[in-house]
Amino acid sequence: MPKHRNLLIVIADGEHARFVRPGPHNAIHPDKAFDPINADRQSADLGSDRPAGGFNAGSSPHHALMPERDPHGLEKAKFAHHVARQLNEAAAEGRFDELVVVAPPHTLNGIREHLDTTTAAMVVGTLAKDLVKTPDHELWPHLRPSIPLAPRVP
Question: Which fold does the domain 1-36+70-154 belong to in CATH?
């Protein structure tokens, strides 16, 4: 008797993630066990690129300015870590046996980098593409090449 497939698909970008599962007839359905992750933040929440005190503060020359940083990039990295943490917790609870991660390359790498060894071993496919705004009923043609035909044998 074939084993029931317990496959979870996470679709993320730098600010949003959704968790879906394949259903009968190649339909994709949201996983109700996961709350959607939305990290919508306004740029004001991300901090300022300018050093404290303004442009002419103090008597320091301009070469002493803080090195350039990317607050938006830092937030995206934090978000990828947050998604990986949720996946690690779900794997530890046995909520999936196989995992497919779909995200733009930078986010995909950030998520995979923060998966623990147990969760990383459950990854059966990845897709470096932004499909967050793709409706569920249009996902299957994109996801199909990233999902192995047979369930993973433990």
Answer: Nucleotidyltransferase; domain 5 (3.30.420)
Query: Domains of the chain: which residue ranges?
Result: 1-36+70-154
Task: Pick the range with the lowest mean pLDDT from 22-31, 68-77, 105-114.
Answer: 68-77
Query: Would you call 43 helix, strand, or coil by DSSP?
Result: helix
Element spanning 125, H or E = strand 123-128
Nearest to 91 by CA among 123, 128, 127: 123
**Rounded to an integer, what distance in angstroms lies between the CA atom of residue 131 and that of residue 72?**
20
d(CA 146, CA 110): 19
Residue 70 identity: D
Closest residue by Cα to residue 72 from 131, 134, 13, 115 = 13
Is the pLDDT reported for residue 118 higher than 70?
Answer: yes
The 10s digit of each residue's pLDDT in 24-64 is 887 899 987 776 666 544 333 344 444 444 444 455 555 55
List helix spans (H) across 16-133.
71-92, 105-113, 117-121
- The per-residue pLDDT for 67 is 55
Q: Please give the backbone phi and psi of residue 135, each rounded to the nearest 5 degrees, phi first.
A: -60, 150
Task: Output the pTM of the full model.
Answer: 0.75
